[in-house]
Design a protein that fits this description.
5 strands, alpha+beta, 22% helix, five-stranded mixed sheet, 107 residues, Aminopeptidase, globular
Length: 107
């Protein structure tokens, strides 16, 4: 996938500009980020795209010296499952984050 980067957003679109996958995050007052939304187009679900996207997000955070927690339930679960591999980017707030699902009309 060809990943595009905007402030607070990493995403991929197809040749018709249809959204394939997206992760959004907000910068918190403490300088960390909250991954608040993940999305994978229904035609790609079950193919590991969400996990790959989170790896891209983790690499971005690492390269930019950021730590993250996640209020998005999928992202929160992924961070906890990959805590040992990505310990350098995981906020101490991760275990205490209020988890929810942000529905943006594309689910």
């Amino acid at each position: 996938m060809d990943w595009k980067y905007e402030k607070g957003r990493i995403y991929s679109v197809d040749e018709n500009n249809e959204l394939l996958a997206e992760a959004t995050f907000e910068f918190k007052e403490n300088g960390e980020v909250d991954i608040n939304h993940t999305y994978v187009n229904p035609v790609l679900r079950g193919q590991g795209v969400a996990a790959k996207m989170m790896e891209v997000v983790a690499q971005y955070l690492k390269e930019n010296g950021l730590k993250a927690s996640a209020s998005c339930s999928y992202a929160n679960s992924w961070l906890k499952k990959n805590r040992e591999t990505y310990f350098g980017i995981i906020s101490s707030d991760t275990d205490n984050e209020a988890v929810s699902c942000k529905i943006g009309g594309r689910h």
